[in-house]
Amino acid sequence: MTYEKHQFHSAPVLIEDLAPVLRLSLRVKPAHRDTLARVLGLDLPVRVGARSAAAGTEALCLGPDEWLLTAPEGTDLTTPARAVHADAPHSLVDISDREITLRLTGPAVLDLLSACCPRNVAAMPVGAAARTVFDSATVILWRDGIDSFRMDVWRSFAPHVRSLLAQVQGEIAAGL
């Protein structure tokens, strides 16, 4: 797979592609959550939208029994999870190639996101994340700072999302 570097920049918002990461979808019943958390080496938050991180791996709670795990490429989370499968049945699926991640930063990032996202992104606390939509594309927004977000978007929707981001970015830069 080739990695293309896309970067759109105007003063109010910088949009850039981030390097690929390991991305896993985890489904496990609440009764077995602690077992998986222990072998994976990080907390699996119970509140939807809550995140945790340890040793470069992040966990985002997407539902009562669903988490998105991200880690640097080459990280092995499947071996320890497989070792406890008999005692803690779960589904752990590699979805790394399904999505790309964009970093959106700058003083007008909330305006940029609000143009196509129905969620009140300004109300998202730093450190939270949420599954939402951007126009018609399902995305995951990670709020990393006051004016810093990551957006995970399915590869098939990336051209559409990039086009919208560039259009809104141009409108913001023009003062519209």
- How many strands appear in the DSSP assignment? 11
User: Based on CA inertia axes, which overall geometry fits?
Assistant: elongated
| Largest sheet features | 6 strands, antiparallel
The N- to C-terminal Cα distance equals: 38 Å
List keywords for this structure.
176 residues; alpha+beta; Gyrase A, domain 2; six-stranded antiparallel sheet; five-stranded antiparallel sheet; 4 helices; 20% helix
Detailed description of the structure:
InterPro entries: SoxG (IPR007375), TrmE/GcvT-like (IPR027266). It comes from Paracoccus sediminis. This is Sarcosine oxidase subunit gamma. By secondary structure, the protein is α+β, with helices and mostly antiparallel strands. The protein has 2 domains: 89 residues, Probable tRNA modification gtpase trme, domain 1 (Gyrase A, domain 2), CATH 3.30.1360.120; 76 residues, Heterotetrameric sarcosine oxidase (Alpha-Beta Plaits), CATH 3.30.70.1520. Helix content is 20%, strand content 38%. The chain is built from 4 helices and 11 strands; from the N terminus they run βββαβββαββαβββα. The N terminus is likely disordered.
Quick gist of this model?
This protein is of the alpha+beta class and 176 residues long.
